[in-house]
Amino acid sequence: MDQTCGADRTASSSLRSHISGNLNRGRALRWRLGSPEPSPPSSGSTGRGQNESHFQGMRAKLRQRLCGAMMKKVGGVLLWLLLLFIQLAEGKRHAPPGKPTLTSCRSPEKETFTCWWEPGSDGGLPTTHALYYRKENSETVYECPDYKTAGENSCFFSKNDTSIWVNYNITVVATNVLGRTFSDPVDIDVVYIVMPNPPEEVRVSVTQNTDWPFLRVSWEPPKKADTRSGWITLIYEVRIQLENEDEWEVHPAGQQKVFNIFSPRSGGTYQVQVRCKPDHGFWSEWSPSTYVKVPEYFPREKSMWILIVVFSAFIFFIFSWLIYMNIYSLKHCLLPPVPGPKIKGFDKQLKNGKCEDIFSSLVVSDFPPITSNYEDFLVEYLEVYVPEERELIMEDSKELQDSLKSENSTCDNDSGRGSCDSHTLLIDKGGCDKEDGLQSDQEGSQPEMDSKRHEEAPEEELLEYSHGNVHSPDISSEKVKSWPSLFSPLPQYSLSPVNQPSPPEMGKQHCLSDSLFAPDTLSSYFTQPGPSTKTDFTSNYWECNFNHKQSHPLHPQTAAHEHLQAQNDTIMACVEHIGAPLGVHVPNVRPTEYVEVQRVSDENMVLLHPVSSGQENSCTMRRQTEDYSRVKTLNNDKGLLLLQRESMEEEMDMCPNEEEVVSRGTSNGYTASITPTSQKSAAGINTSLPILDERAASGYVDTTTMFGLPTY
Amino acid sequence: MDRAILLLSVMCLGVSTQPNTDNQRLFSIAVSRVQHLHLLSQRIFSEFESSLQMEEQRQLNKIFLQDFCNSDYIISPIDKHETQRSSVLNLLSISYRLVESWESASHSLSGGSAPRNQILPRLSDLKTGILLLIRANQDPSEIITDNSNFQFVPYENNYQNLDDDESLRKTYELLACFKKDMHKVETYLTVAKCRLSPEANCTL
């Protein structure tokens, strides 16, 4: 069977050829198909084989018939398919038209408008298109009035057909034999589809006869657009491009019809275009280009640049030359030299040992800040002394000042007489009680001292004058050191109306020196043996002035009076001197001793004696401080008006008394007028003794402080 | 004598041109105001449209054609020819009525965004300006005859009690109508201004 059907397959292929008209072949094929297949009969049974063979033959025939039928059927189907295929391949397709599309509708002037569409496929048959529209609020359908004017596939609506502010519903229909197809409807309002024509008559010109020409572009609105009646309002835009460049320069021009373009490139060629747009619509196309050439109006700048370069070089040279000429002054101006740390002139003098000028220069009005009288006192003080003395004094003053600065400086050549001496003196004082001997010694030594004042070692002098205290130098030194901060009882110097210039000098010197740094010294000088104190050296000044014995004021006074007197000046001087210069650093300096006014000498000298240490109370302390007081006036070399904290001076034993005295002195702290008032104070001198307080150690005996002190 | 006549004539000219200048100035102001209103309406409308879906847009487009604006009862020229034929006063009156109708309907317009809230005051300003122009340009004899034009038709509120779809549609219609009417007024005023301008070539 398989063979048979397989043969059928071959038969089908051959069937085609048969269809083409060859029956014989089919017959042969059939025959072939029907031909019994050679079956190998089994050799063996012949008798039986006969029956079998016959049966087999019958079956083969049957098979052949079946295959034949099948073949016929297949052939028919194939035939039919073939026909169909051919037909399809050769023939055209006819279908309804495809769907057209409305591409755009435009109105150039808001009075008419045109719509364009795009047809779809036509289906192989002639297709026609029609445009139908419907106005809003109306069901009437109209057809396009004009298909021709606007070209193919377009519809033109004339003025009569155009209504503004009315919605149009437009549809395009494509029709052919097989059917019709509608496009999608489009709604338009003429107002919003306005796209004008480009502006016309675009002209570009270059302004003539000017050094800086510019371009002037002018144009006209498109003809159709009715701008005159205001029916349509157009705004314009200009664009310009330089030749051989890619970028356009766009300028909005508003509603005007003229536009200026400034600063064109010299010698360049420009291309200008204009377009317009209604207030609610679309931009028109760009107008055709207009070309313009700009003449070369900008001069070649080479010569100009050369001029500029030369000129600037010239200026530069001048400027640099000026700088060079003034380089030093400039340098000085910009980088001023830093001044060295020294005082001009003063240094020199110091080195040279001439202190006077220096000191005088140093004495400034506000130094020390005690009283105004202080200065006066100083001046007078200076005046009083003889040149030597003056020098001494001045030196002392200076020294004092110096000492103020360097408290511990001692025994300098410059520091002068009193420095070291004062130390010793002070020491002595402190160490020894007031003794006449001392006084006398002092007295005696004073002249020596005086003479020695300047250069001699202060220590020596001190030694002499002191109570012979060996320790004087030490003491002095001690005292010296403690000078500034001393508040010890005043170095009582008994003020004695010493007319001798020298003692005063000495005193002064001492004072000076003391004031500076060694009140003790001074005090030691004049310390009548009595006053021990010494430890409390108030301000140097004070000591200078008022070193005097506490005890035995009288006695020592008497003894010392003379000396004192002689020394008074000095003392006073010292006092004041001390006071004055020391004023600076007086505050902390306490008088080593308290000085009392022992008595008032006839010469109007106040003998000041140092108050005993025991009496170092506020008063004395104060007094001592008053040591600083300076001699206000020197009366006839006799009376030193001590500007002191009065404490010392006078009379009092009581501070208040002293105050009085002081007040009398009419000086702030100093009773310069010791002398005049000394008389009164004489009585109280003994007790008086303004004891300089520690407080008064400030160096200046202030009445104020004085007043506060209790009297004793 | 001649000089006096000359002076008088010059003065008369000056006086006569004076109102014209004022007129032009008023027109300019009114035109600028309505232009601004129109731009505003365009903006609102486009915002509304952008907030819609595509399908809704299509539907609305279809529906819109079947309805009409609230101000359709006001007969107005719909093309250039008609507009040219209308007198200035007619144009002004039509503009006035349009503005007035929208002024009464502005409450349905306003609300929501800020631009919408500006509509009513601007409408009022515009109405005032147009009224001034009418008074400046009308002849005493015409007042009586034009009364009919000023009949005020009450605003029909068709937009209340509507469901969402309807309200959306109505809003769309409202905005579109407003935009259109503003453009109308702008055009009328521009044409009227140009017609009254001394220059023949009204390109401004």
Automatic annotation (TrEMBL), chain A:
InterPro entries hit by this protein: FN3_dom (IPR003961), FN3_sf (IPR036116), Growth/epo_recpt_lig-bind (IPR015152), Ig-like_fold (IPR013783), Type-I_Cytokine_Rcpt (IPR050379)
Pfam families given in the database record: EpoR_lig-bind
Domain Fibronectin type-III stretches: 96-197, 198-297
Stretch list, region Disordered: 31-56, 431-477
SMART domains with a match to the protein in the record: FN3
Signal sequence segment: none
Entry keyword set: Disulfide bond, Glycoprotein, Membrane, Metal-binding, Receptor, Repeat, Signal, Transmembrane, Transmembrane helix, Zinc
Residue ranges crossing the lipid bilayer per the database entry: 304-324
Superkingdom to which the source organism belongs: Eukaryota
Record keyword DNA repair present: no
Membrane topology: Single-pass type I membrane protein
Location in or out of the cell: Membrane
Job of this protein: This is a receptor for the anterior pituitary hormone prolactin.
Stated family: Belongs to the type I cytokine receptor family. Type 1 subfamily.
Free-text domain note: The box 1 motif is required for JAK interaction and/or activation.
Protein's UniProt name: Prolactin receptor
Organism, scientific name: Ilyodon furcidens
Automatic annotation (TrEMBL), chain B:
PANTHER family cross-referenced by the UniProt entry: SOMATOTROPIN, SOMATOTROPIN,PROLACTIN
Protein name: Somatotropin
Subcellular location: Secreted
Organismal lineage: Eukaryota, Metazoa, Chordata, Craniata, Vertebrata
UniProt keyword annotation of Zinc present: no
UniProt keywords, alphabetically: Disulfide bond, Hormone, Secreted, Signal
InterPro entries (alphabetical): 4_helix_cytokine-like_core, Somatotropin, Somatotropin/Prolactin, Somatotropin_CS
A Pfam cross-reference name: Hormone_1
Location, primary (coarse class): secreted
UniProt source species: Ilyodon furcidens (goldbreast splitfin)
First and last residue of the signal peptide: 1-17
Database matches in Gene3D superfamilies: 1.20.1250.10
Protein family: Belongs to the somatotropin/prolactin family.
Keyword Cell cycle: no
Transmembrane segments: none
